[in-house]
Design brief:
The chain has 372 residues and is mostly beta strands. It contains three helices and 26 strands.
């Protein structure tokens, strides 16, 4: 089957030790049934919205994107009578605006699909998440990579189970700079700077750690990600936003099993090789499979910026020098003017798009609002 969950890696175990990854090769699932997949949680922090993604499993042989569960009703119910209705915002994604919750209340998720099936989770307690102490980095001795680490602790020793997600953004620049562009059959000064872009990735890696075997609820230098220098993400400026979640023991066990099961699937929507169900059940058929785990937690987050200047610019050279008439028809970009000796009109130096326009690498020329 294919689900919403992706390739994962696990960091589990005692402080200072790397988690072990155990190879797992379950048999391929070939049943044609579609089962509900629930991805999301109740964000009990007052600043951020809660989001629930609903989709369906599909056969391994189906290479299409996952099927979104649209037209559903998504509700969170408190055991003291509170009710919160989510709003569908498209493609199976449901949102609840930020608000204040009673942290002494327990909550459950209720889903009614467009096919009139109903699913409900068990009640879960609101799990507190301690702040992130620091995000640090270490450059490899041979400068081949940069490792990002996280440090945190809970002085109350009540968290014990942790999960992290991260997104990375980096600024990059092209080897050649275009000063001019062609518009309305005329050469004009370029309006937008297409030399500098920003790109963002949100890996689906599952990162977990537990301190249950330690005397202190303390996480020290747990690796979050390792960024190869060859990626050029570290060449100009790099930023990583890390989100930290406190888990219940049941939630930790669910994510651990999911990580062990799906670590070889390859990408976010690739086949899930075995059945890992959580705390969500069908109200009409207790034997029906439902994938996902509902929790209630206020995440903590922290962002850092790094400028180690590691990597290298691609070797590029201009492609040609053209007259104005030729430049108007050239498929290449216009880099700069060139005035031959005694010339009354300039010629134009051109460059290939792949060496000049940063958008060809998938980034955007719009500077992120958080960029420093």
């Amino acid at each position: 089957m294919k689900t919403f969950f992706g390739i994962v890696a696990v960091l589990i175990g005692m402080l200072g030790l790397e988690g072990c990854i155990v190879p797992f090769s379950p048999p391929e699932v070939t049943a044609a049934d579609k089962f509900l997949v629930v991805d999301g949680f109740l964000n009990t922090g007052a600043k951020d919205s809660s989001r629930i993604q609903l989709s369906y499993t599909q056969l391994v042989t189906n290479k299409n994107a996952f099927t979104a569960a649209v037209g559903a009703q998504v509700i969170v119910e408190g055991n003291k009578g509170s009710v919160y209705n989510f709003t569908e915002i498209g493609k199976g994604l449901y949102r609840l605006a930020p608000r204040t919750f009673n942290e002494a209340e327990q909550f459950r998720l209720r889903i009614r699909t467009s096919t009139r099936k109903e699913y409900v989770s068990s009640y879960v307690e609101v799990k507190q998440t301690p702040p992130i102490d620091s995000i640090t980095y270490k450059i490899a001795a041979d400068k081949s990579a940069v490792q990002i680490n996280i440090n945190t602790h809970d002085p109350r020793a009540k968290t014990r189970f942790y999960r992290w997600k991260f997104e990375e953004t980096w600024e990059y620049r092209m080897s050649l700079y275009s000063l001019y562009e062609v518009k309305n059959n005329a050469i004009i000064d370029r309006v937008d700077n297409i030399n500098t872009c920003w790109s963002t990735e949100k890996p689906s890696t599952i990162l977990l750690a537990s301190t249950v075997k330690l005397t202190q609820d303390l996480i020290r230098d747990i690796p979050i990600t390792n960024v190869p220098t060859s990626s050029n993400k570290m060449l100009v400026k790099y930023s990583i936003l890390v989100k930290q979640y406190g888990l219940t023991q049941e939630g930790f066990e669910y994510w651990t099993n999911l990580a062990k099961t799906t670590e070889t699937t390859g990408s976010l929507f690739d086949p899930q090789p075995s059945q890992v169900t959580g705390n969500i059940k069908s109200t009409s058929d207790s034997q029906e499979l439902v994938f996902g785990f509902f929790s209630a937690v206020a995440p903590q987050e922290q962002r850092i910026f790094i400028t180690p200047s590691l990597g290298r610019y691609e070797w590029c050279v201009p492609t040609d020098t053209l007259s104005a008439a030729e430049a108007l028809k050239s498929p290449d970009l216009l880099l700069s003017e060139y005035w031959p000796e005694g010339a009354r009109v300039p010629q134009y130096i051109t460059g290939d798009h792949a060496c000049t326009d940063c958008r060809t690498r998938g980034g955007t020329i719009i500077r992120p609002s958080f960029w420093q």
